Target: MBL fold metallo-hydrolase
Amino acid sequence: MDRHAAHKPDRGHGRRRLATPPTQLDNLMGAAGLAGSRQAGQRRQMADNTETRYLRSNVILEPLVDRFYAWLHTVAPVQASMNLANVQLPMLESYLQSPQVHVSASTNPKFRGGYYVGVPQSRATEIAALVASIQRDRAPMLEFAAAVAEAENLIRQNATGSDLSPLYPRLPSAIRGLVEICYDTSNQPSLHFLEPLVYQSAAYIEQRQSVQLSLDDGEERPFILSTPRLPSATTLDLALPFRHPGLTELVGARIRPTTAARLRDALDLDDGQASVLDQLLDASPSLSADRHIDAGGRIRYFGHACLVFQTAEAAIVTDPFISTDNRFGDRFTLDDLPDNIDLVLITHGHQDHIVLETLLQLRGRVGSVVVPRSSRGNLPDPSMAQYLRHLGFPVTEVDDFDEVAFPGGKVTATPFLGEHADLDIRGKSTFWVELAGKSVFVGADSSGIDPDLYRYIRGHLGSADMAFLGLECDGAPLTWLYKGLLTKPVTKKMSDSRKLSGSNAAQAGAIISELGAGEAYVYAMGEESWQGHIMATSYADDSYQLQQIDEFLLWCKDRGIAAEHLFNKREWRW
Model:
């Protein structure tokens, strides 16, 4: 298939099958024989529980909050409350009114990425139970969201340039003591959240968190922003917070031997759960022999915006979003990661760049997760540092041009313009990576809307040998991702004019010119088959984004700059 076409997952290689059916011998045994078989089975189980086990390569670990796929805006308490109240709960209630409408829309390629619940009508009673539990058990979050809307309305009507102190007693009780009201120098008022305190408030309910484990068979999963994950016979559902040490023990079994008994204790499993866990384990690891290097430098492209930088001394990973399906050898997977990762670099807080599903798979083997510093309290700009620390990750927070050293090299945080619908979001950064004699610019989804910025970057850091960019130049409108946070309606015209767009061909060319880069690489923007549940993108050969990529590649060719549109996997060695 042409890589510029919409890629669909290969569905011809079997479904998940975790349960082991009874054997014919079991069915034929009499009472005495059955008793003997049980004794033998107990002996085998005792032996199995103490034998060396590894986590299978293709185990998916989906983090969930109230059964919805977890990402920054559904876990960080301010944004999670707003999304629960304004998006997720109304969407579930809409589903219950017309289940078949939602199911039909969720399977229609025309509505891919829409807010339609893809749960069969036969399971509508489970959705009704989920709605009831949210209304009952998440009342503090719903109250918090209502209080935010009320407070912002209060400020809009009363903060007109005069003293703000009389407004504090009028704030709703649910947010009192957790916010500050302030003006900018143009007398525009805003509400700022004291995020560390909100994590200690009733709005942060850790009991929402759970994980769902299954085996990756290549089947595309439902879109993460719309469809909750219900339990099934082929999944292992664990009501554990994301920071639980048992999860570190579990994912560590990818690279270190353990036993079923040890994992059962670490995860506090019952007999039924332990039986399902056994199907997720193997007697030997499936790690790639070439996951480390002995000399020189190497960069591997793992898909989307994920790059792995390596020397013999260190390993750096950017925006990890990595496939667990290693059946076909057409991509790098978790098997190909080095055992120890010095730094994970996160460019921004969108769900395809700070991917908790992958980050949880790396727990216990990362020195630090490097994240850009947020604006400290703006509603659309949650702190990634607070988020990750509460989930049990070591974190380094950086401002523009802060440096983070690693053995044999360093990373410099550089500015990131655009792609956030013109919202006041500071939690975004590009990165400049220096290792093994090369300087590499990691541009992610940033825009070349102001080329002069990159002239300053070059003046500060020198010329780039290589640059990696995304060219999603016609992104989704403002309300697609941020509608849950808007307490004042915006018109469709306004929303459509403020898109989640990165560079077009001309802007990307300006970045490369100003940086003096000799090589330029455009990453695949949701084209890889394993990313549909998060990206929900579909391109045709005549899509504007792909036309712009072709135009950029031609621009590079005319100037003698090596350039490629990346897809699935790529490797550079020097």
User: Anything to note?
Assistant: The chain has three domains: 50-138+205-286, 140-198, 298-573. The longest helix spans residues 77-97.
